[in-house]
Design brief:
It contains 14 helices and 19 strands. By secondary structure, the protein is an alpha/beta fold. The chain folds into two domains: 298 residues, Aldolase class I (TIM Barrel), CATH 3.20.20; 117 residues, Golgi alpha-mannosidase II (Immunoglobulin-like, Sandwich), CATH 2.60.40. The strands form four sheets. Strands 7-6-5-4-3-2-1-8 form an eight-stranded parallel sheet. A seven-stranded mixed sheet has the order 9-10-11-16-13-14-19, with helices on one face. Strands 12-15 form a two-stranded antiparallel sheet. Helix 3 runs parallel beside helix 5, helix 12 runs parallel beside helix 13 and helix 12 packs parallel to helix 14. The protein starts with a helix and ends with a strand. The site of one 2-acetamido-2-deoxy-beta-D-glucopyranose has 3 residues, from loops.
C-alpha cells in the first residue's frame, strides 16, 4: 500500500464512530471451536472432530437440546481453518467446499432455526494464523459484506501476518465496515494480544469504542498452568484492564476449557468462578457431545452465570494475595450484592483460611452468603464476624454475598436469558448452614 492510501485510511479512522449497536451488554456466552478442535481438517480419518459443518451443527444441536441455550449460551463460533485456500472469482472468502458443502449461509440458517447465533473467524493480515486467506486492508469491506450476507452474528478478527500500522488501520475499518452492513454483528478484536496487551501500545478507550470484546493475552491451552498464567497476568495488570471493561466492551481472557483433559474438578470450578468474577466471555471450547456430568453442572451453574452476567457489568478485581498463597477476588454486583472468590494456589491439602468481611473492605452490617458450588447459605454474618473456609488446592470457594434478609430464604440472582440482560430475584430453597 502506498503512502496516499495510508493517509486516506487515517482520515477514515478519525471519522470512526462507535460500534454502539446495543450488542453484548453482558459478556457473550456460547461455544467456540479453537481450543478443543484446533485446525483438525482431516475429515477422512476424523470425521466427527474435523472443522466442518457437521461439527458446528452437532454443537448447535447440543446447545439447543441440552439446556445451554436457556442459560444464555447462544453463540456457535467458527474459528480458523474454515476457509478454502483461495478466494472465489469475485475475490470473496469461501468455505472449503469438501468440509462445508452447504455453505456458511445454510449453516447460519440451521443455527438461527435453533434460536442460536453464528460467529465466524477472519484475520487482519495476509493470511490467517493457520495460513488461510487473510483480510488485507483492501478486502475489509468486502469480507464484512460477505459475512453479513451469510447471516453471521459475531466476528472474531485475528491479526497474524500484519504489522502494527495495518492493525491500527484495519481494526477501526472493520468496525466501520461491519456497522455499514446494517446487520448487528458482535466484534471480537484480537488486536491487543499482538501489541503486548497493555497501554500505551494498546488504547483501551479506542477499543471500547470500536470492539465489543478483545483478546488481551495469549491463547489458553488445555492446562491449569496456562489458566493460572492468564489469571495472574490479568490480575497483575488489573489497574489497566479492569476500567476498560463494561457493558458492550469486555476483556477476554479466552475460552472456557472445562470438560476437556487438562483440569481437575476443583480447577474447573476455579475457572468458572474466576471467569465470572472477571466478567469474562463464557465461551466454552469443549466437546458438548461428550461432557461429564460434573463439568456440565459447573458450566451450567446458574448463580455463577448470573454473577458473570450481572447487568452492572463491573469487572471484579483481585483484592488480596496472602503469603499462604490464598488469593481473594471480589466483584460488585447489582442489588447491593457482591461476589467473592477465595482461590488456593497451594499444592498440599485443603487450607483453612480465617478472615472476615470487614477485612475484605465490606461496610459494617449484617450479611448472608450463598456458597455457589455447594448450594449452602451462611447466615448471620456480621461484617466483623470471623469465619473460616476450607479451600482445596487449586480450588475455590465462591460466595454470592448480599445484605441480610428478613426471610429465611436466600435471595439468589437469576439470569433470565430470554428476557434480555435482566435479573430477577427468586426464592431458592437454600439450606441453613452453620459458619465453620
Ligand atoms: C452503527 O453505528 C451507529 C452509531 O453508533 C449505531 O446507532 C447503529 O446501531 C450501528 N448499526 C449497526 C448495524 O451496527
Ligand atoms: C485513545 O483513543 C481515544 C478514543 O478514540 C482518543 O480520544 C485518545 O486520544 C486516544 N489516546 C491516545 C493516547 O492515543
Ligand atoms: C456487628 O458487630 C458490631 C461490632 O462488633 C456490633 O456493634 C453490632 O452490634 C453487631 N451486629 C449484630 C447484629 O450482631
Amino acid at each position: 500500500m502506498g503512502p496516499i492510501a495510508v493517509t486516506q485510511l487515517l482520515a477514515l479512522i478519525s471519522l470512526t464512530v462507535a460500534l454502539d449497536n446495543g450488542l453484548l451488554k453482558t459478556p457473550p456466552m456460547g461455544w467456540m471451536a479453537w481450543e478443543r478442535f484446533r485446525c483438525d481438517i482431516d475429515c477422512s480419518d476424523d470425521p466427527e472432530n474435523c472443522i466442518s459443518e457437521t461439527l458446528f451443527r452437532d454443537m448447535a444441536d447440543r446447545l439447543a437440546e441440552d439446556g445451554w441455550k436457556e442459560l444464555g449460551y447462544e453463540y456457535v463460533i467458527i474459528d480458523d481453518c474454515w476457509m478454502s485456500r483461495l478466494r472465489d472469482e469475485q475475490g470473496k472468502l469461501q468455505p472449503e467446499p469438501s468440509r462445508f458443502p452447504g455453505g456458511i449461509g445454510k449453516l447460519a440458517r440451521y443455527i438461527h432455526d435453533r434460536g442460536l447465533k453464528l460467529g465466524i473467524y477472519a484475520d487482519m493480515g495476509t493470511h490467517t494464523c493457520m495460513g488461510f486467506p487473510g483480510t488485507t486492508l483492501d478486502k475489509i469491506e468486502l469480507d464484512a459484506q460477505t459475512f453479513a450476507s451469510w447471516g453471521v452474528d459475531y466476528l472474531k478478527f485475528d491479526s497474524c501476518y500484519s504489522n502494527p500500522l495495518e492493525q491500527m488501520l484495519g481494526y477501526p475499518l472493520m468496525s466501520k465496515a461491519l456497522n455499514a452492513t446494517g446487520r448487528p454483528i458482535a466484534y471480537s478484536c484480537s488486536w491487543p494480544v499482538y501489541v503486548g496487551g497493555l497501554p500505551p501500545a494498546v488504547n483501551y478507550s479506542l477499543l471500547g469504542e470500536i470492539c465489543h470484546l478483545w483478546r488481551n493475552y495469549y491463547d489458553i491451552q488445555d492446562s491449569w498452568d496456562s489458566l493460572q498464567g492468564i489469571v495472574e497476568w490479568f490480575s497483575n495488570n488489573q489497574d489497566d484492564l479492569q476500567p476498560a471493561s463494561g457493558p458492550g466492551r469486555w476483556n477476554d481472557p479466552d475460552m472456557l476449557i472445562i470438560g476437556n483433559f487438562g483440569l481437575s474438578v476443583d480447577q474447573a470450578r476455579s475457572q468458572m468462578a474466576l471467569w465470572a468474577i472477571m466478567a469474562a466471555p463464557l465461551i466454552m471450547s469443549n466437546d458438548l457431545r461428550n461432557l461429564g456430568n460434573i463439568e456440565r453442572a459447573i458450566l451450567q451453574n446458574k448463580v455463577a452465570i448470573a454473577i458473570n452476567q450481572d447487568p452492572l457489568g463491573i469487572q471484579g478485581r483481585r483484592l488480596l494475595q496472602e503469603k499462604s498463597r490464598i488469593e481473594v477476588y471480589w466483584r460488585p454486583l447489582s442489588h447491593s450484592a457482591s461476589a467473592l472468590v477465595f482461590l488456593s494456589r497451594r499444592t498440599d491439602m485443603p487450607y483453612l483460611y480465617h478472615t472476615s468481611l470487614a477485612k475484605l473492605n465490606y461496610d459494617a452490617g449484617n450479611y448472608e452468603a450463598y456458597d455457589v458450588f455447594t448450594g449452602s447459605t451462611v447466615r448471620g454474618l456480621n461484617a466483623t464476624s470471623e469465619f473460616t473456609l476450607s479451600i482445596n488446592p487449586s480450588g475455590v470457594v465462591m460466595w454470592y454475598v448480599y445484605p441480610e434478609k428478613e426471610s429465611k430464604q436466600a435471595d439468589l440472582p437469576h439470569y433470565r436469558h430470554n428476557k434480555g440482560s435482566q435479573f430477577t430475584f427468586h426464592k431458592a430453597n437454600a439450606r441453613h448452614h452453620t459458619v465453620l
